[in-house]
Amino acid sequence: QVRLVESGGGLVQAGGSLRLSCAASGIIFSRYVMGWYRQGPGKQREMVARIISDRSTDYADSVKGRFTISRDNAKNTVYLQMNSLKPEDTAVYYCNANLAYAYWGQGTQVTVSS
Length: 114
Fold this sequence. Notes:
The chain is mainly β. Helices cover 0% and strands 57% of the residues. It is built from no helices and 11 strands. It has strands at 3-7, 10-13, 18-25, 33-39, 46-53, 56-59, 67-72, 77-82, 91-98, 102-104, 108-113. The strands form 2 sheets. Strands 2, 4, 5, 6, 9, 10 and 11 form a 7-stranded mixed β-sheet that branches.
């Protein structure tokens, strides 16, 4: 059974930081492209960041320079360090594991107050 469990969301003031974690089980973690997606109020789900390896990452233009994705294959965990948060970053953030099939976590709420 595949499980992706996110943690680390919460309420933060604009300019603050949060670190999201996603612990995976039931997959060969190192083989998967891991990603973070988000869905804001009234918006479609969008890709935030993806990581194949430490030297292969991809970011949405809106978060470049502020967010950093990383992974620890020994711990089956992917992280999203979010700095300089803005109110428009408010969303439910979802962890994604993608190979031939995409798995999703249940999401964690991030709220940035102005």
